[in-house]
Amino acid sequence: MDRVYRLETFGRIGFAAHGVVYLLVGWFAIRSALGLGVPTDTKGALHSLVGGPFGWAMLGAMALGLLFYGLFRLVEAILDLNDIGDDARGMVVRTGRIVGAVIHIGLAIYAAALAIGLTLSGGDMNGWTAWLMRQPYGPWMVMAIGAVVFGVALAQAKSAWTADFMDDLTISGETHATAEAVGRAGYAARAFVLTLVAVFLVSAGWNTDPSQAGGLAEALRELQKQPYGPWLLGIVAVGLLMFGLSSFVEAVHRRITDDNVIDRLRAQATGG
What we know:
Transmembrane segments: 12-34, 54-72, 98-120, 140-157, 187-208, 228-249
Structural class: mainly alpha
Pfam families: DUF1206
Domain DUF1206: 13-79, 96-162, 185-253
Order of helices and strands: HHHHHHHHHH
Shape: globular
Protein name: DUF1206 domain-containing protein
Organism: Thalassobaculum litoreum DSM 18839
Strand content: under 5%
Helix content: over 70%
Number of domains: 1
């Protein structure tokens, strides 16, 4: 049982940290839509805390929270705590969560480095795409990662359409309707930007051109360049803010230690 409640603590703190990151990303995107700057990604959001009031303390707390989030997602995916299954769709979603876990553990390391005054170089999308392309079958691996990202985007779009994320929340009444509306908007926005990221990766692999790869910041900047770009960016920015708020809702109301999860953890512990 101690491991179950430790998992719950990791999950709730992690979802809160995840929410802060997306609130910052959404805020910078809104500023960009108003012509007050350029969009940024999750690393840029963390870097914005440097030099601020109690910046080192906030970055330290974010590092811990993001580490917890990554560990929670890793356990969730490996043990299949949400009963996603091991069919093709389930494996894509679970693989996406493992990739997300690794990314957030990397973000935790980045935040910890910033907290102690270090700046980690490298690690941008173009950099690791270029490295991967130099490996055997590199372009194919880049396209495969793009396909996984697109699979995650489809899963997020499905969540926005069906509101299946509410199945994991213990909310009722008017609060339920509000949480559902916020979550739908958030998942839709994230599905949209992840689809753009997937397109960037597949295009980079297909053309063997790492400069065509791009992450969250590049996706938002691409939106800004389109006709009615500020409006499009503003809509997506509000959605990303909603996604951040929905992470806070999960931090408080997510069903983590229900009987299903406890039974699964017990089965894993006993090898059953």
